[in-house]
Design goal:
Length: 122
């Protein structure tokens, strides 16, 4: 009778974990960055709407921009325009990568625009 020798598999789990863990960390960081992009987009939309509402109510352009900057992410630019019967606001904000491996990624700009009708008597 012939004896079959089993291969020694000690350390195989450690080697697999050593390969998989860095990949899981990269995926986690990428997902966290995508979530931060989504949050920044929501904040930009809210800031744009806030500025448009303020202008539609008859607030000054400076007040509308200040309200938008309070809601918008840091480094955002706010443009407003009140011509005719409508008001318009555009907010653009940069979102930088999380650093590390993703530090080489270019800055992403999120943008939102809101338009509103001026209220009567303004």
């Amino acid at each position: 009778m012939r004896r079959v020798r089993r291969r020694d598999e000690r350390g195989a789990v450690t080697a697999e974990a050593a390969v998989v863990l860095p990949v899981l960390v990269l995926v986690t960081v990428a997902l966290a960055w995508l979530v931060s992009l989504g949050v920044a987009q929501v904040r930009v939309v809210d800031a744009s709407r806030e500025a448009a509402r303020a202008l539609a109510r008859g607030e000054s352009q400076g007040t509308a921009v200040a309200l938008a900057r309070r809601v918008a992410p840091g480094g955002a630019s706010v443009r407003t325009d009140a011509t005719g019967t409508t008001v318009r606001s555009v907010v653009v904000a940069p979102v930088r990568g999380p650093g590390g491996v993703f530090g080489a990624l270019p800055t992403v700009r999120v943008r939102a625009e809101a338009v509103a009708l001026k209220e009567l008597g303004t």
